[in-house]
């Protein structure tokens, strides 16, 4: 019998901040800063806690591993844990250090 496979799900919040791009003029060599919209595929520095809380409600009862994708890595996980606690969402403190999981019951 094959062992159970726990599906992995990637979760990220989209980057919403504008980007600053520094370009050098080929003729003068002078640097200029251009402000532009974020690219559609870019991840935010942190996870939006209200969006993640909604995701937890939608996946309640499912056994999944969630991979968080955020530019600030560990700091984003720690901030998300605090944000969820502040919203009264129970966390499974026995989960690995780099994961956020809904508590059983």
Describe this protein's structure.
This protein has a two-stranded parallel ribbon. The chain is 23% helix and 21% strand. The longest helix is centred in the C-terminal third of the chain and has 14 residues, at 73-86. The chain has one domain (8-86). β2 and β3 (31-36) form a beta hairpin. The protein has 105 residues and is α+β, with helices and mostly antiparallel strands. The chain has 2 helices and 4 strands; from the N terminus they run βββαβα.
Total count of strands: 4
Specify the helix fraction band.
10-25%
Shape by Cα distribution: elongated
User: Can you summarize the main beta sheet?
Assistant: 2 strands, parallel
The number of helical runs is: 2
Low-pLDDT regions: 97-105
**SS content category:** alpha+beta
The sequence of SSEs as H and E is EEEHEH
Q: Mean pLDDT, nearest integer?
A: 85
- Distance from N terminus to C terminus (CA atoms, Å) equals 30 Å
Number of domains: 1
Strand content: 15-25%
Strand order of the largest sheet: 1-4
Which value, in Å, is the CA radius of gyration? Answer: 19 Å
């Amino acid at each position: 019998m094959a062992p159970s496979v726990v599906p992995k799900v990637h979760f990220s919040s989209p980057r919403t901040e504008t980007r600053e791009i520094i370009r050098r003029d080929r003729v003068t060599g002078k640097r200029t800063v251009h402000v532009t919209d974020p690219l559609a595929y870019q991840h935010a520095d942190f996870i939006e806690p209200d969006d993640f809380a909604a995701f937890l409600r939608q996946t309640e009862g499912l056994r999944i591993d969630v991979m968080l994708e955020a530019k600030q890595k560990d700091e984003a996980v720690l901030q998300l844990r605090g944000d969820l606690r502040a919203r009264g969402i129970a966390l499974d403190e026995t989960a690995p250090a780099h994961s956020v999981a809904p508590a059983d019951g």
